[in-house]
Write a structure and sequence with these properties.
Largest sheet of chain A: 4 strands, mixed
Number of helices of chain A: 10
Radius of gyration of chain A: 17 Å
Oligomer: homodimer
Structural class of chain A: alpha+beta
């Protein structure tokens, strides 16, 4: 088996790559690393990625990291089915939407989840409220896209869906925590506030192989139910 | 003429695209927008990019924004000479290095330039010192790459060079300002502290068409000389 993936449970960056591997029906050897044991920073892993981060993909002797670069590599090396579109124009839109997500959503989204999971909501209420405002506005834009199409870009699932979905799931998990009770009304329940996004989440969850990509420790420790 | 570029003088994101257009010898109609007059947020421009940001590329009826997406689109639409490599493996490394730059260098680099140009160095000395530390370390990594090769990735100039170069030039311009006198010793003179980077900058400046990409207002208002 040529492909090997080093990943962490709950890492949205790892999840992106796993969704792409399932979509392309590429078998791979799975190496689940424990963040709590600092396994991504083991000497073996630092040789593969000196930053000590996951995901890392090995394809024979070739090593790639940074999730977007892995998606891009996989699409060039194993082109069918494509995840970056079938024309230059469609590819440009997919990459543009990914860049927008990374530039205008991800920093604030990750800030929210970090503050919730570290129990710092009360202490950082101003910062988290500002971040929620930005993420809420951007979610409205994505909601607009999904109210016109089943997928984020174009007529089929693409790298844009794979990049955005895990972060949305992480945000929802954070918002369902009791510490986030005062924050969640803007988003939850999703079927009321963001109905197209809610339907897209169901669609993503029905993709072949989805269950294999779901963070294992999320199954063992569900967030307290909220919606 | 099919291609049109809307850009701003001194915008590193615009500069990336101009370098790629010159490299591919693609003629384009140039629309220089004035930031001081809020031209990127004019009704006409908001129709092309609702975020009111540049660069924006028009190719006939097709519109693309976000600099990395434009580079990607251009490479698919006008493949020769390639800027994302000639093999999946090389492409993966180019994209990986771009992602690393965007994730680990750009936020702090842009913070430094923003604080210098807004005259906030003294007031934000702790924040700027931390940012300089990060950028200095990452510049050391890039210096390592360039001490082994003429270009950031592989044997020819690529999108990685086009993405990184304008931000480095912007940083150097900031560090040459008198407000940055106490900050610059870590970087300047480049030929002493980062000799491979300094040689690479000269190499980039010698690329065909480079002069046409140089920010026009930088010529008119040179930063005070420092190194």
């Amino acid at each position: 088996m040529a492909l090997e993936l080093y990943w962490g449970s709950g890492s949205p960056y790892s999840w992106r790559v796993m969704l792409a591997l399932e979509h392309k029906r590429l078998p791979y050897q799975s190496h689940l690393l424990e963040f709590s044991k600092q396994e991504p920073k083991s000497p073996h892993m630092l040789k593969l990625n000196f930053r000590g981060q996951v995901p890392v993909l090995k394809d024979g002797d070739y090593v790639c990291f940074e999730s977007l670069a892995i998606l891009y590599y996989l699409d060039l090396k194993y082109p069918e089915p494509p995840i970056f579109g079938r024309s230059a124009e469609e590819s440009g839109v997919i990459m543009r939407v990914i860049c927008e997500f990374q530039a205008y959503v991800e920093p604030d989204l990750m800030k929210i989840t970090r503050l919730v999971f570290s129990g710092s909501v009360a202490k950082e209420l101003d910062a988290i409220t500002r971040a929620m405002h930005t993420v809420g506005n951007e979610a409205r834009t994505i909601e607009g896209r999904l109210s016109k199409s089943d997928w984020i870009v174009g007529e089929s699932v693409s790298a844009a869906d794979f990049v955005i979905f895990p972060s949305i799931q992480l945000l929802l998990r954070a918002l369902r925590r009791s510490e986030a009770a005062d924050l969640r009304s803007r988003f939850l329940p999703m079927r009321v506030n963001y109905p197209a996004l809610a339907r897209w989440i169901s669609r993503m969850e029905a993709l072949p192989g989805y269950e294999r990509t779901y963070p294992p420790h999320w199954r063992e420790q569900p967030a307290s139910a909220a919606s």
